[in-house]
Amino acid sequence: MIISCEKCGTQFEVRKNEIPKEGRNVQCGVCNATWFQKPFEKNKKNNSNHVSFHYFANFFLLCLILVSFVGIMETFRDSLLYNFPELDQYYKFVEMIIDRAFEEIKNLFSSFSI
Ligand SMILES: [Zn+2]
Predict the structure, then answer these.
(1) Which of 23, 56, 72, 90 is most buried by a 10 A CB count?
(2) Is the pLDDT reported for residue 82 higher than 80?
(3) Cα separations (Å) of 100 from 5, 95, 97, 107?
(4) Distance from CA of residue 82 to its chain's centroid?
(5) DSSP letters along the chain, please?
(6) Near ion ligand 1, which residues have CB within 5 Å?
(7) In the predicted model, what is the mean pLDDT of residues 32-42?
(8) Number of other CB atoms surrounding residue 5 within 10 Å
(9) pLDDT at site 56
């Protein structure tokens, strides 16, 4: 971890085990100032992990909802198209997206196999 002198701002690299859980007094080797150094906070790292997990979970949920929606729309395609002919636009759009996705995957695989 890196700690910085509160007086002159000089930064020092210290090993994690050099600062105990309860903290300790340290002295700056440049200006001789002393201060109480608290241990490296794990919260920061945990928070960022938590945030990235949060985003991943949201993304996953969004994908799940999207796939469920498309699945439901596909299941009731015939009756939906019968009752709402304007949904034809939606199905054309989804087919285009799926076609493009498959095309991309095919390209990806063909580039790997060569
Ligand atoms: Zn200093």
Answers:
(1) 90
(2) yes
(3) 56, 8, 5, 10
(4) 42
(5) -EEE-TTT--EEE--GGGS-TT-EEEE-TTT--EEEEPPPPHHHHHHHHHHHHHHHHHHHHHHHHHHHHHHHHHHTHHHHHHH-GGGHHHHHHHHHHHHHHHHHHHHHHHHHH-
(6) 5, 7-8, 10, 28, 30-31, 33
(7) 84
(8) 19
(9) 86
pTM (2 decimals)? Answer: 0.43
Extract the tokens encoding 100.
């493009």
Average confidence (pLDDT) over 63-75: 91
User: How many angstroms does the Cα of residue 57 sit away from the middle of ligand 1?
Assistant: 44
Give the integer Cα–Cα distance in Å for 29 and 14: 13
Cα dihedral sign, 97-98-101-107: negative
Domain residue extents for the chain: 2-40, 49-113
Over residues 87-111, the mean pLDDT reads 90
Q: Does residue 2 register a pLDDT over 60?
A: yes
Residue 102: left if φ>0, alpha if ψ -120 to 50, beta else—which one?
A: alpha
Q: Phi and psi at residue 111, in whole multiples of 5°?
A: -70, -25
- pLDDT of res. 29: 93
